[in-house]
Amino acid sequence: MTKRLPLLFFGHLANDTLYTSLPPLLPLLAAQQTSSAATLALIPTVYLMTASFLQIAVGLFFDRKPKTILMPLGLFLGGVAVSAIGFVESYSLMLLLGFLGGVGSALFHPPATSLASVSEKRASSVSFFMSGGDVGLAVGSFLATTAYAVMGVRGTWLLILLPALAASMLLVGVRQPLEAHVQNSVRPDVKKLGFALATAIFRAVAALSFVTFLPLYLTERGLSFSIAGTVLTVMILAGAGGMLSAGYVAEKIGKRRAVSMFLLLTGLWIPVAVLTPPQLSYLSYGVLGFLIFAVHPILVAYSHDLLPQNLGAASALMYGLTFGLGHLIVPFVGVAVDVYGYQSVLLSLAFMPFIAALLFQWAPAAAKTRTIY
């Protein structure tokens, strides 16, 4: 483990607290705004879409000019923007701040993921780094809910603390890359990533659908809203454990085998989780979170093997494009839920990992190349 990896982990944790701090804020904004809930929901949507698709441009830029200052800059910008939402009354300004928060996240992810990948044990390093983001998603929701309960909408000022601390640590602890073992100005051969991207998108749709609809499904089955929300938190935290474990598994059996194994296990476990009695939800969805989130960091590390001269672009595509498209597809899953019901649709999601595993069989083999900064 490189000395900078714990700093990158903490930076990822701090960055991802910002997104999950937004949904708990919406009911408070709705109480003081004339805007509808659907209109207010555009704030986290603008954040997410900006963060997802702008990453591609940032990744391409970082490959040509590897400026590590992008990470603390992104954290600080995102922290200031999100923390300011509770202090403005104009809906247009709230949307603008959501956009700027997304810009901050986009500035952080490609450089940080690229630097985390620079290791003799790429899979385990990337997995460790990415698990920080998963922990951040859970921490952000908890901290924001607590802050809003005590201080109301003005509690958003607390949201800048973790990003500001992480930005300061990265500014001091992660210096400008001194040397590149490969030339980063090479145009990325995106065709190489075709099947890996398709694999990641199918996995993302399944994972994001469960994150979106699980609380609603569990409340339909008789659990309270608070317990259903806690089950989702357990699932996300278990996903962090899955990410950590997946890296070490990939080092032992290889990335391709590890991806296929976790995808097949996910497809087999989804029906078990969906049909398990609600009283066992913590266990069943904890296992599902472990399996379904484990695949993502291995796919990111694999994309770096395919495009060792374009780590920023590969990171942005596997992060931004897959999650952006995944979130755009999830509403259509919601339409299916309205027609067929939660259980039928969630059961059908079991096909997604199997299709992803099948597509991954056509992904090209990657030469072992190491990038040194």
From TrEMBL:
<dbReference type="InterPro" id="IPR020846">
    <property type="entry name" value="MFS_dom"/>
</dbReference>
<keyword id="KW-0812">Transmembrane</keyword>
<feature type="transmembrane region" description="Helical">
    <location>
        <begin position="282"/>
        <end position="302"/>
    </location>
</feature>
<keyword id="KW-0472">Membrane</keyword>
<feature type="transmembrane region" description="Helical">
    <location>
        <begin position="128"/>
        <end position="150"/>
    </location>
</feature>
<feature type="transmembrane region" description="Helical">
    <location>
        <begin position="94"/>
        <end position="116"/>
    </location>
</feature>
<feature type="transmembrane region" description="Helical">
    <location>
        <begin position="69"/>
        <end position="88"/>
    </location>
</feature>
<dbReference type="InterPro" id="IPR036259">
    <property type="entry name" value="MFS_trans_sf"/>
</dbReference>
<feature type="transmembrane region" description="Helical">
    <location>
        <begin position="223"/>
        <end position="246"/>
    </location>
</feature>
<feature type="transmembrane region" description="Helical">
    <location>
        <begin position="195"/>
        <end position="217"/>
    </location>
</feature>
<feature type="transmembrane region" description="Helical">
    <location>
        <begin position="258"/>
        <end position="276"/>
    </location>
</feature>
<keyword id="KW-1133">Transmembrane helix</keyword>
<dbReference type="GO" id="GO:0022857">
    <property type="term" value="F:transmembrane transporter activity"/>
</dbReference>
<dbReference type="Pfam" id="PF07690">
    <property type="entry name" value="MFS_1"/>
</dbReference>
<feature type="transmembrane region" description="Helical">
    <location>
        <begin position="41"/>
        <end position="62"/>
    </location>
</feature>
<feature type="domain" description="Major facilitator superfamily (MFS) profile">
    <location>
        <begin position="161"/>
        <end position="373"/>
    </location>
</feature>
<protein>
    <submittedName>
        <fullName>MFS transporter</fullName>
    </submittedName>
</protein>
<dbReference type="InterPro" id="IPR011701">
    <property type="entry name" value="MFS"/>
</dbReference>
<feature type="transmembrane region" description="Helical">
    <location>
        <begin position="314"/>
        <end position="334"/>
    </location>
</feature>
<dbReference type="GO" id="GO:0005886">
    <property type="term" value="C:plasma membrane"/>
</dbReference>
<feature type="transmembrane region" description="Helical">
    <location>
        <begin position="156"/>
        <end position="174"/>
    </location>
</feature>
<feature type="transmembrane region" description="Helical">
    <location>
        <begin position="340"/>
        <end position="360"/>
    </location>
</feature>
